[in-house]
Amino acid sequence: MTSTPSKIAITGASGQLGRLVIDALLKTIPASQIVATVRNLEKAQDLVAKGIEVRVADYDRPETLEPAFQGVEKLLLISSSTVGERVPQHQAVIEAARRAGIKLLAYTSLLHADRSPLGLAEEHRHTEAALKESGVPYVLLRNGWYAENYTVSIPVALQHNAFLGSAGEGRISWASRADYAEAAAAALIAEADQAGRVYELAGDQAYTLSELAAEIARQSGQPVVYNDMPEDAYQAVLVGAGLPEGLAAMLADSDIGVSKGGLFGEGGQISALTGHPTISLEKSVAQARKA
Q1: Can you say whether the dihedral through the CA atoms of 110, 116, 121, 126 is positive or negative?
Q2: Can you name the residues that pair with 110 across neighbouring β-strands?
Q3: Whole-prediction pTM value?
Q4: 127 contacts 90 by C-beta, under 8 angstroms
Q5: For residues 56 and 49, is the Cβ–Cβ distance under 8 A?
Q6: Which of 187, 186, 206, 196 is nearest to 267 (CA)?
Q7: Which alpha helices (DSSP H) does the chain contain, by range?
Q8: Domains of the chain: residue spans and CATH
Q9: Cα–Cα dist 61/40, whole Å
Q10: Which residues of 145-175 are buried (b: 16+ CB within 10 A; e: fewer)?
Q11: How many whole angstroms separate alpha carbon 26 and alpha carbon 19?
């Protein structure tokens, strides 16, 4: 008698990180072992086309969660994008996972969440505490910053010959979104028991925003300098650029956290999981400019 292959479910599977995790999983396991859970089925038809089972699981509709997790052994809880509402949303997922008998829940937390100076860390700390209390076996994937969080601003930096921020000379151990996705996939399919592990996931190298500006200038041939600003002034610039007040405040606070070392990590744990180095500063800029 043969056993049925275990299924792995990804929440938020139609998002940028979720899709990349699925792509990474497909390199090692068949589509039949992957369950993609999404809020909107219409936005996941490309996943269906890949042979992946897609189920509805909405963080804000707890009744959709447990049915979506039935028959699943491992679950990746990708943290909600709704800052300020993550605690009840994540709690609902954890409770549904417990009732569904999930054997391993992997959660995308924040680098050094237990001691991070970033305001973003608070909701992650609450979620980590909820996991500990739930009795569900879990592994923490404490993600540092995505390179894309900064490189997305390259067109504006080139337009104004300046990259703005409040990070001072704080070093950021960023990695690409794909790097973090591959690390998550590796943890989910690892043969060794992952329950209880805490991965501090950061890039192999760390960079300042001054170094980022210099690399943008080098590749573009245009003058670009880093303009460091007080937190309130930077927040005002972001609001003036059209960002909502809450998002602008979060981004400015995160930059202040960078200045305090909040997004610096020793690195090595992503590359240990994936088997290759994380993205370089040069390649991050080159990819962003090409896109």
Answers
A1: positive
A2: 143
A3: 0.95
A4: yes
A5: no
A6: 206
A7: 16-25, 45-49, 65-69, 86-100, 121-134, 148-151, 154-160, 177-189, 209-220, 231-240, 245-259, 269-274, 281-290
A8: 8-143 (3.40.50.720), 146-175+202-265+276-291 (3.90.25.10)
A9: 12
A10: bbbbebbebbeebbeeeebbbbbbebbbbbb
A11: 11
Give per-residue pLDDT as tens, 93-145.
999 999 999 999 999 999 999 999 999 999 999 999 999 999 999 999 999 99
Q: Which whole-number Å values give the CA distances from 282 to 205, 219, 221, 285, in the listed order?
A: 12, 8, 14, 5
Length of the chain: 291
Distance (Å, whole) CA 160 – CA 21: 35
Which amino acid is residue 159, in one-letter code?
A: Q
Amino acid identity, position 131: L
Q: Among 135, 111, 121, which residue's Cα sits nearest to residue 199?
A: 111
Structure tokens at 78: 């990708």
Burial per residue of 224-251, b for 16 or more beta-carbon CB atoms within 10 angstroms, e otherwise: bebbbbeeeebbebbeeeebeeeebbbb
